[in-house]
Amino acid sequence: METRRSVRGSSAHNFKSGLSFWLILWLVVMKPGGVAPCPKLCVCYPTPMTVSCQSQNLTIVPAGVPYDSQRVFLQNNRITELRADSFGFETQVLWLYGNNITWIEAGAFSNLRVLEELDLGDNPSLRRLEGGAFRGLEKLQSLHMHRCKLATLPHDLFHKLYSLQFLYLQENQLHFLQDDLFSDLVNLTHLFLHGNRIRALSENVFRGLVNLDRLLLHDNRIRQVNRRAFRDLGRLTILYLFNNSLAELPGQAMKDAQGIQFLRLNGNPWSCGCEALPLWEWFRKARISSSELMCSSPSQRRGQDLRFLRELDFALCPLPDPGSLAGTTTTTFSTKTRWWFSKHKPASSSKASYQKSSETVKAFPFPPVKPQYIPKAPVETIPAKYELSADEAALPKLDPEEYWANYGNEDSSIRCFELECPPNYDNPAFPSSSSITITPSLLHLLSFSIVTVSLHFLFS
């Protein structure tokens, strides 16, 4: 009996020893997150788990970064490539700025499903990106790619980045922005594109940015803005377009950005001839904080502020075409301008050289006449700059303060437009509609005539 008990006791002892051995071995091999070793040349901090490896001359992402690391700091190294499976699953903040990254493998961040901030700025060798570089980052809120010498952006680069709010693309070498490039960024609020080489803004370049609040486009080479470029930017409050090559800006584009509060357009060669009329009209109604808009042409208006030109400065401009690229509508000047211009009309002018507004045409009960096709002049024949004629230069001058003080106080006694007034309208002897008085005797005679005609039809 004692022999059996001793055998049983030794077996139990051996079992416990073996279990302890395997438990110790499991603890050593598995390395629970709380005791995971820190990668070489890095410093780790718990709660939240942070791995800091900045400024260590690393050429690759160090191996052994704990998979539960929430913050990974790898900035100011010499890392050249980013490959898939280089980062953990729980990383929320990843800083890689100030490296020498030249290539990012498609899907390099696909495991980072909870990543919120990615900083790739100041990588001057990162000149191109693959379309799937940011695949899987559906919770990303802030993306930094400033000063990377990027020349182009793939059309699907920001595909499904629905949570992105801040996008930093300034000081690259971007010449062109593709249509619908930002169409998935429905929650983007800040877009920084200044300091590039962008030349034009197309119709669909900002489509989908319905929550954009700030758009910085200064220090580019923008020469043309499509009249519908800002049609989705109804919540935009800050727009910077200064230091570009803009000579004109469609008024319709600014009407679409109805929430604008701060606008900077200085440092552009503004042309203040008839092409400036749509923008000038928009400024008359908009009450925003704006920079100055100094005219570069025509020569007579050089140095003047476009915002403070007078209505009379555009009196000789033809009515804009509603279907033109400027996106303007038919303009009707106030009665004050029409009255002044009718009195000071040059002798060489004739009624045939002017077009009546659409409201005047509708007032006549004649059937519509099908317009004849008139071929447009070639683009080469249109002068590059608008110069004031002698008639425009002869218009009286008005200070900006005086203009805004009198704006809206048109003379209500003016009852006809300059093209519709009788030849001797200015003659006091010419009877007007208000000078015809209806006397009691005339009223009785009119009533008697109506009764007589009625009886005639009744008993005939």
From TrEMBL:
Q: Where in the cell is it found?
A: Cell membrane; Cell projection; Membrane raft; Membrane
Question: Among the entry's GO cellular component annotations, what is one?
Answer: plasma membrane
Topology of the protein relative to the lipid bilayer: Lipid-anchor
* InterPro entries xref list: Cys-rich_flank_reg_C, Leu-rich_rpt, Leu-rich_rpt_typical-subtyp, LRR_dom_sf, SLRP
Q: Tell me which positions the record assigns to the signal sequence.
A: 1-37
Question: Main subcellular localization, coarse class?
Answer: membrane
Keyword annotations from UniProtKB, A to Z: Cell membrane, Cell projection, Glycoprotein, Leucine-rich repeat, Lipoprotein, Membrane, Receptor, Repeat, Signal
Residues in LRRCT domain copies: 268-318
- One short Pfam name that applies is LRR_8
Under the heading SMART domains, the entry gives:
LRR_TYP, LRRCT
Give the protein family: Belongs to the Nogo receptor family.
Q: What is this protein called?
A: Reticulon 4 receptor-like 2b
Q: Highest lineage ranks of the organism?
A: Eukaryota, Metazoa, Chordata, Craniata, Vertebrata
